[in-house]
């Protein structure tokens, strides 16, 4: 089955701890994205990567970091510098870095206690 | 950056009713997508429609790029249609900008 997987589904962390969210895709897509969703709002772009070993900041990159060492993987680290990390995080991918349809994973709900 | 406005913000229907959701945007776009977010948070692709009209079963969508709006039509609504509907626009660099969504509730 081709698709995008995110793990874990739910994540609880203490304030001040870094946490890494996993995103894997087997669609052979070049581009991958991370979005954040707060309750009652739309999604906002955190980081995106159009090709392996390259990534760009989105609209709300402060307090987050990413890596893209493999085509199929794009992990997101939420650092202690992120002031309000509790949110729903969604990963997406698209075939190329140009205009094209994006597909989303099931998301990770992060709660910082 | 591009502004995306969705209306109405909330919509309550009886099962079997038809509805139209609207997405207005402030700039030209390379890509426009409609999504349905189910109660578990999963975003389901409905349409990839930068221009023109597409239909998929009870749903159809029309984008008039020159007038900067898109419409999503839902006919004969079912309770499983409930959830949040988002439009999202790509202007450059493959970045999607999302609207605030329309919360649809379909009552039996």
Q: Note the beta-strand portion of chain A.
A: over 45%
Helical content of chain B (DSSP H or I, runs of 4+):
under 10%
Number of helices of chain A: 0
Order of helices and strands of chain A: EEEEEEEEEEE
Alpha-carbon distance between the termini of chain A? 36 Å
- The count of DSSP E runs of length 2 or more, i.e. the number of strands of chain A, is 11
Total domain units of chain B: 1
Q: Please tell me the CATH architecture of chain B by its name.
A: Sandwich
Output the structural class of chain A: mainly beta
Low-pLDDT parts of chain B are none
Most extensive contact: A-B, 31 and 25 residues
What would you call the shape of chain B? globular
Please bin the fraction of helical residues of chain A.
Answer: under 10%
Query: How many β strands of chain B by DSSP?
Result: 11
Largest sheet of chain B: 6 strands, mixed
Keyphrases for this structure?
heterodimer; A: 113 residues; mainly beta; 7-stranded mixed sheet; 0% helix; 50% strand; globular; B: 108 residues; Immunoglobulin-like; 6-stranded mixed sheet; 5-stranded antiparallel sheet; 11 strands
Brief account:
The complex is a heterodimer of chains A (113) and B (108). Chain A has 113 residues and is mainly beta. Chain A has strands at residues 4-7, 10-13, 19-25, 31-37, 43-51, 54-57, 64-66, 76-78, 87-94, 102-104, 108-112.
Per-chain topology:
The complex is a heterodimer of chains A (113) and B (108).
Chain A: E1 4-7, E2 10-13, E3 19-25, E4 31-37, E5 43-51, E6 54-57, E7 64-66, E8 76-78, E9 87-94, E10 102-104, E11 108-112
Parallel strand pairs in A: 2-11
Antiparallel strand pairs in A: 1-3, 3-8, 4-5, 4-9, 5-6, 7-8, 9-10, 9-11
Chain B: E1 4-7, E2 10-14, E3 19-25, E4 31-37, E5 43-48, E6 52-56, E7 59-64, E8 69-74, E9 83-90, E10 96-98, E11 102-107
Parallel strand pairs in B: 2-11
Antiparallel strand pairs in B: 1-3, 3-8, 4-5, 4-9, 6-7, 7-8, 9-10, 9-11
């Amino acid at each position: 089955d081709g698709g995008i997987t995110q793990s874990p589904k739910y994540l609880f962390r203490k304030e001040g701890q870094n946490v890494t969210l996993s995103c894997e895709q087997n669609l052979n897509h070049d581009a991958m994205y991370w979005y954040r969703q707060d309750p009652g709002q739309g999604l906002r772009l955190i980081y995106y990567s159009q090709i392996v070993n390259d990534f760009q900041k989105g609209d709300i990159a402060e307090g987050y970091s990413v890596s893209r060492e493999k085509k199929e993987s794009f992990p997101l680290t939420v650092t202690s510098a992120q002031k309000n990390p509790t949110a729903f995080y969604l990963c997406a991918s698209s075939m190329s870095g140009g205009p094209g349809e994006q597909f989303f994973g099931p998301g990770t709900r992060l709660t910082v206690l | 950056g591009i502004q995306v406005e969705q209306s109405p913000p909330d919509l309550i229907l009886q099962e079997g009713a038809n509805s139209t959701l609207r997405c207005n945007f402030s700039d030209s776009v390379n890509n426009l997508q409609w999504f349905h977010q189910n109660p578990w948070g999963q975003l389901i692709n409905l349409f990839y429609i930068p221009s023109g009209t597409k239909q998929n079963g009870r749903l159809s969508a029309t984008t008039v790029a020159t007038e900067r709006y898109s419409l999503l039509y839902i006919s004969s609504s079912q309770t499983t249609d409930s959830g949040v509907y988002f439009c999202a626009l790509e202007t450059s660099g493959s970045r999607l900008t999302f609207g605030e969504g329309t919360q649809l509730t379909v009552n039996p």
